[in-house]
Write a structure and sequence with these properties.
alpha+beta, Ku70, Chain: A, Domain 2, about 325 residues, 8 helices
Length: about 325
């Protein structure tokens, strides 16, 4: 499978050791359902147009520029070439400044994840030296890199055969937690309530598995779109949230514990009764559980359906079961 285009190319440098690298975006939102702006009368897609604020005349794309407002309606024009010419080393080099204990990095500063990989056969050895120097030490590297016309701090740590980079927010970008938490009263929790809550926590303990979570809102949107494509009406009334029952806190904890135990028993019985099935190989991603929409690979699905019957989709099985 061909890799996507690198988000950034340059060099990774540790003291006098350097190697050419490519940085790739580690996350993607391209599989989400997206909407376009359309004309409700004609159904045609709308096109946004830039308009001069003073003359009210349309502006073509080639005349669009960038400016810094130093006074009211007064701007200093800045070109991309002028920004690219700013000579700081992090424009083309990720130079490691220091190593810090990974556990000391406050996760509130985490911003965007990236995959860092060697970009040349010649630099494979140097890349491996930098990667393995961090592995097993529980240390993370802090470096600087210019992304999208802005210098960012990036945390680097070994990840499989490559390096995971996470851009970090600056301290001034993070809001102070005291502004939100200082007015919360200091409540003394009774020992029996705390122990009961801890027991509930233990009944829900599990290993982290991101594939166990599905975007239920995304699935509902796709289901609504499929109904509209089929000419069926979509509901317009907003579902009212259920009013919470005002009950004793201890009673609520006991009910939660009883409900959790019953759910665990049912799950264990279901797993014991279900025959073992050979797991199917699936590609990562949320969209694999959704039925395809028109224009989203329908042609390929029809061609494959000629040779053999398509497997029943999970959404269809749920409808039959209901």
């Amino acid at each position: 499978m061909a890799l996507p285009r690198p988000y950034w190319k340059g060099y990774l440098k540790l003291s006098l050791v350097s190697c050419p690298i490519a940085v790739y975006a580690a996350a993607s939102s391209g599989e989400r359902v997206s909407f376009r702006q359309i004309n409700k009368e004609t159904g045609n897609r709308l096109k946004q147009q830039l308009v001069d604020e003073v003359t009210r005349q349309p502006v073509e794309a080639e005349n669009k520029g960038r400016g810094y407002e130093y006074a009211k309606n007064a701007y200093v024009s800045v070109d991309d070439e002028e920004l690219d010419a700013i000579a700081i080393e992090s424009n083309h080099t990720i130079e490691i400044d220091k190593f810090v204990p990974r556990a000391e990095i406050d996760e509130r500063y985490f911003d965007t994840p990236y995959y860092v990989a060697p970009n040349d056969q010649v630099g494979q050895d140097a890349f491996a030296v930098i990667r393995e120097a961090m592995r097993g030490k529980e240390m993370a590297a802090l470096a600087r890199v210019v992304l999208l016309k802005r210098e960012r701090v990036m945390m680097l740590q070994p990840w499989d055969r490559g390096i995971l980079g996470v851009s970090l927010r600056y301290a001034y970008e993070l809001r102070d937690a005291k502004d939100y938490f200082d007015e919360i009263p200091d409540v003394t929790v009774p020992k029996d309530m705390r122990e009961l809550a801890e027991h509930i926590l233990e009944t829900k303990a599990a290993e982290f598995d991101p594939t166990a979570f599905t975007d239920r809102y995304e699935e509902a949107v796709v289901d609504m779109l499929k109904k509209k494509q089929a000419g069926l009406p979509a509901p317009r009334e907003r579902a009212a949230p259920a009013a919470p029952n005002v009950i004793n806190l201890m009673d609520a904890l006991k009910r939660s514990l009883a409900a959790g135990g019953a759910a665990n028993d049912r799950g264990a019985n279901d797993r014991a009764a279900a025959p073992a099935k050979k797991p199917k190989k699936k590609m990562d991603g949320q969209r694999e559980m959704l039925l395809p929409l028109a224009g989203k690979g329908q042609g390929k699905a029809k061609e494959s359906a000629k040779g053999k019957a398509a497997p029943e989709a999970p959404a269809a099985r749920r409808k039959k079961a209901s």
